[in-house]
Specification:
single chain, about 70 residues, alpha+beta, three-stranded antiparallel β-sheet, two-stranded antiparallel ribbon, 5 strands, about 15% helix, globular
Length: about 70
């Protein structure tokens, strides 16, 4: 993935500690695979599972066009 690949996508905690919380990804580092979001109400831990929602139209347009990256 590219550094901007998940910016503006929704990260939802789907199970374990913090389940049900959602945040918008504001930055993503492809080298470390770390997404930046605002502070969680309950901090996720090793029991937490998650989903990243990438809008279908972003995939159809191509990530670089939707997320503002270079082609």
């Amino acid at each position: 993935a590219l550094n901007y690949a998940y910016v503006n996508c929704t990260l939802t905690l789907t199970g374990g500690t913090g389940s049900g919380q959602e945040r918008t990804i504001s930055a993503y580092d492809a080298d470390t695979k770390v997404a930046t979001v605002s502070t969680w109400d309950t901090t996720p831990d090793s029991t937490t599972t998650y989903n990243i929602d990438v809008p279908l139209f972003a995939v159809r347009l191509g990530f670089s066009n939707y997320f503002g990256g270079a082609t």
